[in-house]
Design goal:
This protein is mainly α. The protein is built from ten helices and three strands, in the order H-H-H-H-H-E-H-H-H-H-E-H-E. Helix 1 packs antiparallel against helix 2, helix 5 crosses helix 6 and helix 6 packs across helix 8. It is flat and about 80 Å long. 15% of the residues are buried.
């Protein structure tokens, strides 16, 4: 016969609460050290520091039982996807890339995915990334773009070239004929109104990019990010 010691259970609960409290206090200490370090240096943008601190504090108490799911919930979700695929109600579970073979294998771009496009120099990695970006934003996806080697004007010119068929070098560096200007003007309406964001301040290092992404998620509810390039 087992006897339940309720006093021991109470002590365990109290000890668990104390451990959680101590863990939170350590996080506050870490944040304080971070702010002290960044406050004494002028290398980082003050807005990035403020954004990081705000997101850090928000994440400390972000735990919610609404985020907890059982295996039953997960299995039900999978069955829902299977049923939708069978009935063709849902072609993709994610955002379409515009490339049928990729979409067929992946179900489109999923928010939880990290996708790395790898190839030798000058093999079209940026062009492929921008093509996928251009296709997915047409379906309402919100994306922020970070480039360590191109300005937003160069990236925009490439996207405009995809829509109009006029080379980006002509768009940027050559006088356009009247028919070219007319074609360009007619073809970019969808691109002009799409949800593509740039942050020219945040392309210097990975820390500023991460802080900018946090701010983009909080302010604009972006769905994805394109970073060019990893080095």
């Amino acid at each position: 016969m087992k006897v339940c010691d309720y006093s021991s259970m109470t002590n365990l609960y109290s000890h668990t609460c104390r451990l959680n409290d101590l863990s939170t206090r350590r996080k506050f200490i870490d944040l304080g050290i971070y702010l002290q370090s960044k406050g004494q240096s002028e290398r980082d943008d003050i807005l990035d520091i403020s954004s990081y601190a705000g997101q850090f504090l928000e994440n400390i108490y972000s735990f919610s039982e609404n985020n907890i799911s059982s295996i039953k919930d997960a299995v039900k979700s999978v069955y829902k996807i299977v049923e939708d695929n069978k009935s063709s109600k849902t072609v993709l579970t994610g955002s379409p890339t515009g490339f049928q073979k990729i979409d067929k294998k992946t179900g489109g771009l999923q928010k939880s995915d990290l996708i790395i496009i790898a190839a030798e120099t000058s093999q079209g990695k940026t062009s492929l990334a921008l093509s996928i970006l251009n296709n997915t934003v047409k379906h309402g996806t919100k994306v922020s773009v970070y480039s360590l080697e191109m300005k937003k004007e160069q990236l925009a010119a490439r996207l405009m070239s995809m829509e109009s068929g006029i080379s980006s070098s002509q768009i940027l560096y050559s006088p356009l004929d009247d028919w070219q200007f007319e074609r360009l003007d007619k073809s970019i309406n969808g691109l002009y109104n799409s949800s593509i964001l740039f942050d020219d301040r945040s392309t210097s290092n990975i820390d500023t990019i991460i802080n900018s992404i946090r701010a983009m998620v909080s302010k604009y509810q972006i769905d994805g990010v394109v970073i060019d390039y990893l080095q």
